[in-house]
Amino acid sequence: MHFSGLILASLATGAVAAPTSNVFNDVYNFDSNLEEFYSRVSAHIGRYANGPSSTPDMSKVSLPSSSLPAPTGTLKYVAVGRGTQNYTCADSTADAVPTLIGAVANLYDASCVAANFPDLLDLITDIVLNYSLPSANVQTSMPPANLDLLGHHYFETATEPAFNLNTTPDKQLGIALTAKRNSTAAPSGSVPGQFNVGYGAVPWLYLTSVTGTTDGYTAVYRVKTAGGAAPSTCAGQPAAFQVQYSGQYFIYA
Ligand SMILES: *[C@@H]1O[C@H](CO)[C@@H](O)[C@H](O)[C@H]1NC(C)=O
Ligand SMILES: *[C@@H]1O[C@H](CO)[C@@H](O)[C@H](O)[C@H]1NC(C)=O
Ligand SMILES: *[C@@H]1O[C@H](CO)[C@@H](O)[C@H](O)[C@H]1NC(C)=O
C-alpha cells in the first residue's frame, strides 16, 4: 500500500459531503467512509512516525538540493513549520517596501516521515498551509500525519531567528539561536500562499548558530517553503501585517 498514492488520490477526490472530523479541519470534503479511511491512514502514519520505540535513521534523509552551501554537521531533526512571516510598512504607498520584522511558527517533528516516507513530506508541507493557523500554546499534533509538536520558531532579536525545542518539562531538546548566512529564491512552482493565493514562497535559507545556542546545534536550513512572502510594495498595506507560510526546517548539530 502506497501512502503517497492515497494522499494524491485524496487530493483528486471531488467534494461530496460536509466532513465532520476535525482531523482534516474541514479543509477537504469527503464522504463519511472516505473520511474515516483517511483518518485511519493518518493515524497509522502518525503512530509509525511518533512511536516511542521508533528512532528515525536520519542518515537516509538528504537536504533538498539548492544553491545553498552543503550541510556539514549531523542532521538531528526535520521539522514542518507552520506560522506567519511578519512585516511592517513605513507608509501605505508604492514607494515603501515591506520590511521583515520576524516570524512565528510552530515546528512539528517530521523526522520519521522524512526518513521513512520522504515522498509525503513535501505534500504535508503544502497541505498544512491550507489548515488554520495552529495556536502557539497547544501541544496538539498536526494533521494529516499527526506530527508531534517539536518546538517553536520566533525571532530572539531582529536578526536572530530562534528554534526553541524546549516544549514541556519532559521535552527539553534545547535551543538554536541563529543568524542568516545565505539565501536563495524558492523554486518557481512553489505554493505562493494559503489556498494558492499570495505573493510567493519565502526564500530558502541557511542559518548558522550564534551565542546562546545549546545542545550543539550548528545550523538550520529553511527549505521547501510555501507562502510567506510580502507584496513587492506597501501600496494599500497596513503598518504591520502577517503572511501565512509553511516550510521545512532541517536542524543540524
Ligand atoms: C551562498 O552560497 C553559495 C554556494 O555555496 C555561494 O556561492 C555564495 O557565495 C554564498 N553567498 C553568500 C552571500 O554567502
Ligand atoms: C508576528 O505575528 C504573530 C501573529 O500575529 C505575533 O504573535 C507575533 O508576536 C509577531 N512577532 C513579531 C516578531 O512581530
Ligand atoms: C489549497 O487550497 C487551494 C484552494 O482551495 C487548492 O487549490 C490547493 O490544491 C490546496 N492545496 C493543497 C496542497 O491541498
UniProtKB/TrEMBL annotation:
Look up the signal peptide feature and give its range: 1-17
Answer whether the UniProt record assigns the keyword Ribonucleoprotein to this protein: no
**Species of origin:** Talaromyces pinophilus
What keywords are assigned to this protein? Signal
UniProt-listed Pfam families: DUF2990 (PF11693), DUF3455 (PF11937)
The entry's protein name is Malate dehydrogenase
Give yes or no: UniProt keyword Signal.
yes
